[in-house]
Structures are given as structure tokens and as C-alpha cells.
Hints:
By secondary structure, the protein is α/β, with parallel strands linked by helices. It folds into two domains: 2-127, 2-Layer Sandwich (Alpha-Beta Plaits); 136-416, TIM Barrel (Alpha-Beta Barrel), CATH 3.20.20. It contains 17 helices and 15 strands. The protein has helices spanning 35-46, 95-102, 124-127, 139-142, 164-177, 196-214, 228-240, 250-253, 255-267, 279-283, 292-302, 322-330, 352-359, 369-372, 378-394, 398-403, 407-416; strands spanning 2-4, 21-29, 54-56, 67-73, 79-85, 112-121, 151-154, 181-183, 219-223, 245-249, 271-275, 289-290, 306-308, 340-344, 364-366. The chain starts with a strand and ends with a helix. The structure holds 2-carboxyarabinitol-1,5-diphosphate (CAP) and magnesium ion. 2-carboxyarabinitol-1,5-diphosphate binds next to α14.
Amino acid sequence: MTGIEYDDFLDLDYEPTGTDLVCEFSIAPASDMSMEAAASRVASESANGTWAALHVDEAELTDLSAVACDIRENAGPGGNVTVAYPTDLFEDGSMAQILSCIAGNIMGMKAVDSIRLEDCKWPETLVEGFPGPQFGTAVAHEKLDAGDRPVLATVPKPKVGLSTDAHVDIAEQAWRGGVDLLKDDENLTDQYFNPFEDRVERSLSVARELTEETGEKKDYLVNITAETDEMVRRAEFVADQGGGFIMVDVVTAGWSAVQTVRDVAEKHDLAIHAHRAMHAAFDRMDHHGVSMRTLAQVARLCGVDHIHTGTAGLGKLENEDTPGINAWLKSDLYGTTDVLPVASGGLHPGVIDALIDALGTDIAIQAGGGIHGHPDGTEAGARALRQSVEASMQGVPLRDHADAGNPELAAALDKWGAE
Ligand code: CAP
Ligand code: MG
């Protein structure tokens, strides 16, 4: 018989192997506990241990223990702890099962006052169990005609309440003004004032007309978020109507649902746009929860093609390290396709220069209010956004470009100013 006790999960001499999943946590231990004691409890509870010492026949036990292998104490209470997990602990290709370990019970343990999963280093054996994205940054030229510039998208506002007629009319103006993608808002799905099927059919029909008229591919990020079987049905409907993209509120719908949608997307050649509504419930507090960096990693493994990662602080919402997260989404991950990061939230033509400086051009820029709030309406707003991107790509100051025969940009800068 053997005992499994908390101390068994701490080994500061342990070097993670190439097949371990290595997680970085920031931890504030409970007031009566040392960092070592808290760290070993975290490793234990997230792997195969529990609060009581267990007595198990060794012959019946596969060793799946995690190891708290590094502790770096901060000046304040707590510090960072590295935990290495053997891959055999995890079911191949199940994000739900992985998260139930590394971001499960430990989030509520009394042994820690707070705990945040900051980052993961994913071993190839785990990554291989997931499909990863189909298109990633390649959507810019494989599905759209954005070339080297950022992909441009717009979400009609008000976010809910517009009739289908009004929604389609705004879409038409935005596409004509120069955006590539119409996008549904995160809380627009299938409501009586703008029913899903009618909206999709009519919007995609106008997208085809505008593709013809402008000579640039126009498409639509259709929010299919719903119960999983219904999402599958909606994805198939989008494909039947000739659409190339679907959007899922990935956090509220859940990762298993995203994994199901990823399979369906592949059958129909659909790219997946991940909206992250509710992410801030996990990542906003810097001492507790799950970082956006980790959520973005999870999203890439599950196979989304785009994900919102913030505006590097230039927009209306709080952001965690947008450049660092974007770099990870494009980094080499054993040949897995990259992900196109989406900057969104309070963007307007006056911040585009600064945004591109911070994040580069291999991004999608999504603006709602910053287009439809233009003094001369949606089409002018879309032109202004496109002109601001042109200026930034050419290295011309926004105001100079506005004065050089771009009145829509001039009106936007007069209204909102420039960074
Ligand atoms: C932006 C937006 C997006 C957020 C998402 C909104 O509208 O449509 O959902 O940007 O945030 O509903 O607020 P505006 P994030 O362009 O009018 O601000 O990208 O940080 O997840
Ligand atoms: Mg929105």
C-alpha cells in the first residue's frame, strides 16, 4: 500500500520533460500556509490527489501525479508556481477534460487566497490531439481580398433591435464603403425582430451583389451561437447560403461546443470567428482566474480562425497584453495553423495609426460605433476607416491623408480626434 500526500507533489529539483504540460500559476497562499504547502496542494488537486492521504495498492495505480517544480516568490503576498503535468493525465483531444484539471477545483481551494492560470506550454503530444485552425491569418487572401492590409469588419449598431431591413441596409453601406466583413453582435442570434435565417439569406445575397460591384470579396461573420445541435444546423444553413464564415461566442457556448462546430466548419469550408464575450469574468482580475493568454491558446487548439484579443489599450475595454497574445497566436506550434487576432471595442479611424503601430497589419480591425457613428453615416464611416488604414500603410500622417482629398477621414478626425 502507498500513501499519496500533498508533499508528494512538490519537487523543486524536477525538470519538466518534453511531454509534460507545463502551467504557470500566480498564487497567493492562505494566511496560514507557506508557498510550498500551497503549491503542492495546487499540483495535487489539479492532478490525482485530494485532501486526505490515500492508501492505494501500487499495482492498481498509474502514476499521474503533477509536480510543483518551481516557485518564485514576489515582493507582495504569494508568487509564481510552475506545475508540470504528465500528458497521460489528459484525454486526447478533450479541452473540457484538460481545463477541469488545470483550471478546475483549484480555482476555489481554501489553500490559496487567489490563484490565476497565467500561461501554458503545450507539448506536441497534446497539441496533436486537436485540429487547430483551418485558415488562420490566411483568410485575408484565401477568403477575402484584403492583401497585406488588415481585414476590416463592422458590427451594425445598435447591437440588437434593428429590423432585418435596417440590418441589411447598414451592411450594404458598410460593404460599399470598403469593409470586407459584416459581423453580427455577440448578443444578436435569432430574435423576433431580426430572425436568423432571413437575416443570413438576405445579407449574403447583398454580399454577393457588393462583391460584384466593388470587385472585392465581401462576406459575413454570422453569429450561430446557440445550443450545440442548433449551432450545427445554423452552420450548415450558412454554408448552404454560400457564406464563408461563422461566428461563435466561444466562452459562453463552451469549448466542447466549439470543438463540435470546428468539425462541421471543416466539412463546409467555413472559417470560425471567435467572439470572447464573458472572457473578462475569467481574466480581468490580475490575481485570480484564467488569463486571456491561456483562453487564446485554448481557442487555437480547438480550431478557431479568428479571436478577439483587444486593442492594446487603445479602445473602450480593458485589455491584457494584446501584443504578447497576438504573438503567441502566430507563433510556431508544431506546425499548427496560426490565428488572426481581432482588435475591437471603441475603435475609430483616429486610432488606426497607433493600433497598427502596436499590433502590425496582420490583424482584423472591427469597428461598430467608429463606423456607424460617423457624422455622414455608415458608408462614409467605412470609407474613413479604409482611408485611415491606407494612410497608416503608406506611413502618411492621418491628418495629411485626410487633407489630401479624403473628406470622410477628415470628418471622422474632426469628430473623434486622432491618437
Ligand atoms: C464592439 C463590440 C465588440 C467588442 C468585443 C461591442 O463595438 O461589438 O463586441 O469590441 O470586445 O459589442 O462592444 P464598438 P473584445 O466597435 O462599437 O465598440 O474585442 O474586447 O472582446
Ligand atoms: Mg459586440
